Give the backbone structure.
Amino acid sequence: MIKGKQRFHSLNFILWFSFLIFAAFIIALTWIFQTTLLRVFFTSQAEEDLGAIGRSAYERLNGALRGREDGVVGNYVDEYVNYCIADLQRDNPLVSIYVMDQAGEVLFPSDEGDFAVSDDTAQEEDYPDLERFNMMQDKLARQEDEKSGIIFKMSDNYYIFGAQLDVPSQSSADSDMYLYISYSTELSEMTYGTMRIQLIFISIIVIFLALVISALISMKLTKPITRITRAAKRMAEGDFTVNFKGEYSYAEMDALAETLDYAKEEIGKSDQLQKEVLANVTHDLKTPLTMIKAYASMIQEISGNNPEKRVKHTQIIIDESDRLTSLVNDILNLSKIRSGMDILKTRTFNLSEFVHTVLERFDFLSETQGYTIVRDIDDELYTEADMEKIEQVVYNLVGNAINYTGEDKKIVVGLKRIEGGKLRFTVTDTGKGIPEEEIKTIWDRYYRSAETHKRPIKGTGLGLSIVKTILLKHDFEFGVESEVGKGSTFYVLFPEK
C-alpha cells in the first residue's frame, strides 16, 4: 500500500493557527454565554422580579380594597388604593400597576384624590388593552390553583402579572376585580444590545491581538530553532567547526544546543576515527601483501637456487602471511563480539593460575630482550567469565604494556582482592604515560600514540578495542590510570566467586 505524501507545516504556522483557534474558541464561548445563558438569566431574573412585585401588590391592594366590605367610606378607600399603587410604582419604576373590573375597565389608579395617578404617566405599550386583559383572564381561568397570580410573557421584552383579587368591584356586587401589572424589559434589552455591539468590537480586537501576539511569539520561539537548523545542515555537510551554543531565552533550547555540540564533537571524532581506520587498515593490509609479493619475486628471480636465501625469503613470506591472517582474525573477532554473534561461555575458574599461564607466553622476551615482568598475584582467587575471551584481554593488556613501557623494560602485573567482592587485575608500565585528552580515545580501533617506540609484540592496532568490547560484553568495570612521564596502569575488576 502506497502512502500519500506526508504534509508538514512550519512551527510559525502551527503556533499562529493554535493561537487563532484558541481565541476563536474563547470568543465562541462568550457569544454562547451572551446569546443563550445571559438571556436565560435575564428572563429568569425578570420573572422573579415581576413575581415579587406582583405578590407584594396583591397583598397590599387586597388589604386596601377590603375596606369597602368593612363599611369604610369609599373616597378614603379609593385614595388609599391610589396611594398604594403610587408607592409600589415609585419603588419599581419599570412596572405599571392597574386594578380592573371583569369588563376590562381600569378602576385604579383613578384621577381623583391627592394620590391620583394620571394615565399620562404610563407608557402607551404598558397601558392595558382589552385583548391582553382577556388573555390574562383566560390564563387565570385555566390555572385556578394560582390564587396569588401568574406571570406570562407577551414578547421578548414585555411581561404581565395577573391575579384575581378577593374583593368585589365597586360597580357591581357580582363583578370581580383583577390586578394587572405590566413589566417592560426594554432597558435590559437595550443593555443586552449594547453588550452585543461591544462584544463584536472585542472579538475583532481579540482576533487581531491573537494574530499579532502569536506571530511575535512564534518568531521568538523559532528563531533559535532556525539558527540551530542552519548549523546542523553545515555539520551534515562536514563542517565540524559550527557552534550550536548561543544566548537562548528558554532552557530547552540551551539544553538542545549543548546536546548538539556534544554530538558534533563525537561525530567529529568518529569521522576522524573512520579516516584513521581506513588509512590504517589499508596500510596494514597493503604492507604484508607488498612484502609477500616482493619476496616471492626475489625467490623467483634471485634466491631460487640458493638454499639459505630461499629459506630466509620464504620465512619472511610466512611471517607476513601470519601477520595478515592475524589482522583478518582480529577484525573478524571484533565484529563477531560487537554484533552479538559470539556468545559468552562463562564458567568459574582460578584466575590466579590463569594469569600465570598467560604470562608464561612472554618469558621469551625476558630471555632474549631483557624485559622484566614482575608478578604481584595473590593465590587462589576465583572468578566467573569466558576463559577464552579473558585470555585475549590479559594477553592484549600485557602486550600493550610491553610495547609502551620505558627504557627499563619493566612491567608489573597484579591481582588483588579488594572491597565489594571484586578482584582487581592491573598491568602497569613505566612509559611516557597518556595525555588526559587521549584517555577516552585509547580504546578506539587503531589508536596510535603520538610517541614513537619499539614494538617487540607485533599487533594489529585492534588490541585495546578488543579488550573494551569483551569487557563490555561481560559487564566488567575497567579503565586506565595514567600520568604523563610516569607510566600507565590498566585495570579490570573481576567478580570474585
About this structure: The chain has three domains: 11-193, 251-337, 343-495. Residues 262 and 453 are 33 Å apart (CA to CA).
